[in-house]
Design a protein that fits this description.
Layout lengths: L2 H24 L7 E9 L5 E6 L4 E6 L5 E7 L3 E6 L4 E6 L4 E7 L3 H4 L1 E5 L1 H18 L10 H21 L5 H29 L23 H6 L1 H22 L3 H12 L3 H15 L6 H11 L3 H15 L13 E3 L4 E2 L8 E7 L4 H5 L1 H10 L5 E7 L6 H10 L5 E4 L7 H5 L7 E5 L5 E3 L8 H9 L3
Parallel strand pairs: 1-7, 11-12, 12-13
Antiparallel strand pairs: 1-4, 2-3, 2-5, 5-6, 7-8, 9-10, 9-13, 11-14, 14-15
Helix pairs in contact: 3-4, 4-5, 5-7, 7-8, 8-9, 8-10, 9-10, 9-11, 10-11
């Protein structure tokens, strides 16, 4: 082969190698968009771990085997997630690429919880942070009994301690630390913002008002920071409280209900689309089940939200709620366990009005209605109405329910729902919060699926209108 040909051949070969190397170097790598969680739970109380994102939206559960082991791939964005086995809760901050190993004994959760693997530094920081804050706040609600200066000093000390904790924790990115320090400050401000109402309640001072300078640290807060809103639940609480206060002012000025006022306030005052959509949805997913004007409520939400997923969910709720509106046949419960023995169905009560109280033994607002409910039952004893209380306690709390009904001498017809919150009757009424009161007429037709509470004077007015 001539020398020139050999040189050309070698040059072509080198050029080909360069091209191949360039192609390999420029090949687009597929980014990791998932995190892996695995581990073992001894004495697991359930067959799955429920997973929730920062907006309390439920994700697909993680299956727990009979041996207590679990492993799953979760497609996540950077953010906070909560894992629950039904009795214990773990707060995690997940990022794509994390590979966390979680082990614990469900019967000794706090003393046995161990988290390791890629991304575990933040997880363990959050555990330490929660323990530290809990210890510094003290037992129960005692912190809210403190007077202004002592209360403010307590939370300023907590803020300082947590600032030092995140600063000194190794293995965590500066980006997370910066966001977390802002979150810690928002937590401090949120505690100041809640003091007036909490101190008034727990110290039994109904007319209590904070001093003029107590909330000065909140001056200058901006309510449109999307990054802080997405990262910090405390900032989100501050924003939510701020606009609820504005809504209260509008409700009083225009003589409209507060739920309608809130939708109007957020729609007109919040300019950031992400924040506006979140506030509207968080209010609507529960508020639509309680509102007295479902048509106006739904119209305001659907015309002002731009999030199609949110709009689809609220539209589905609206459709369900229309089926349980006034004049519609009531959904039925069948063969619910009766505390006095046997079982009871709604059909057994036909011919009388039925006032239904959906409640649970752990529900404070439910228990607060008991004295008024007893008075109503006494007042209408022998009238054409039955009072039915349906517990949505879980099966494991069945004995607690039986004991409480007996100890508190609860009257009326006391029933235990067949599948707690998943009971068909509860689902068909789209009950998302308790206590919930429902009034059905003698023909089984709905009079009011959101009837007034026993403590509300409007209930007696309603009974008089119906000539009960």
């Amino acid at each position: 082969m001539p020398i020139v040909s050999i040189i050309n051949y070698k040059m072509k070969k080198i050029a080909l190698i360069i091209i191949l190397v360039s192609l390999i170097s420029c090949k687009k790598e597929i980014p990791v968009d998932y995190a892996i969680v695995s581990g073992k739970i001894m004495n697991a109380p359930a067959k799955e771990l429920k997973v929730y994102d920062a907006n309390n939206e439920k994700l697909a559960p993680v299956t727990i085997t009979n041996q207590g082991t679990f492993t799953d791939t979760l497609y996540v964005n950077n953010g906070f997630y909560t894992f629950s086995d039904g009795e214990n809760r773990i707060n995690l901050y997940l990022e794509p690429g994390n590979n966390l190993i979680i082990n614990y004994d469900a019967t000794q959760f706090e003393n046995s919880l161990s988290i390791s693997g890629i991304g575990s530094e933040i997880a363990n920081y959050l555990i330490t942070k929660e323990k530290t804050e809990k210890e510094m706040m003290g037992e129960g609600t005692s912190v809210y009994l403190l007077e202004e200066d002592a209360y403010k000093n307590r939370f300023a000390e907590i803020k300082s301690t947590l600032d030092n904790l995140i600063t000194l924790t190794e293995g965590i990115s500066e980006e997370f630390k910066t966001s977390e320090k802002k979150n810690i400050n928002y937590s401090y401000l949120e505690k100041l913002a809640r003091y007036e109402s909490y101190h008034s309640h727990y110290a039994d001072k109904p007319d209590f008002k904070v001093s003029n300078t107590f909330l000065k640290d909140l001056d200058g807060i901006l309510y449109d920071n999307e990054d802080d809103f997405l990262f910090s639940s405390n900032y989100k609480s501050l924003i939510t409280s701020h606009f609820y206060k504005k809504a209260g002012e509008l409700a009083e000025k225009d003589s409209i209900s507060e739920d309608i006022a809130f939708l109007k306030t957020v729609s007109s005052l919040v300019k950031n689309e992400t924040i506006k959509n979140s506030l509207l949805f968080d209010n609507a997913k529960y508020g639509i089940t309680y509102t007295e004007d479902i048509e106006l409520f739904y119209t305001l939400f659907s015309e002002n939200s731009t999030n199609e997923k949110h709009k689809k969910e609220i539209a589905a709720s609206y459709t369900l709620l229309k089926k349980v509106g006034k004049g519609q046949p009531s959904p039925k419960f069948s063969d619910y366990e009766n505390h006095k023995g046997g079982v009871t169905s709604l059909d057994d009560l036909k011919g009388k009005f039925v006032y239904i109280d959906v409640w649970a033994t752990w529900c404070g607002p439910c228990k607060a209605e008991i004295p008024a409910l007893k008075e109503i039952e006494k007042k209408y004893h022998g009238k054409n109405i039955e009072f039915v209380s349906i517990s949505v306690d879980k099966a494991k709390d069945h004995e607690i329910w039986k004991k409480m009904v007996s100890d508190e001498k609860l009257g009326g017809i006391q029933l235990f729902a067949d599948k707690d919150w998943d009971s068909e009757f509860v689902q068909e009424y789209l009950i998302k919060g308790i206590p919930r009161f429902i009034l059905v007429d003698p023909n089984g037709t709905i009079v009011n699926s959101n009837a007034p509470r026993p403590s509300d004077e409007k209930l007696i007015e309603l009974f008089k209108e119906l000539k009960i």
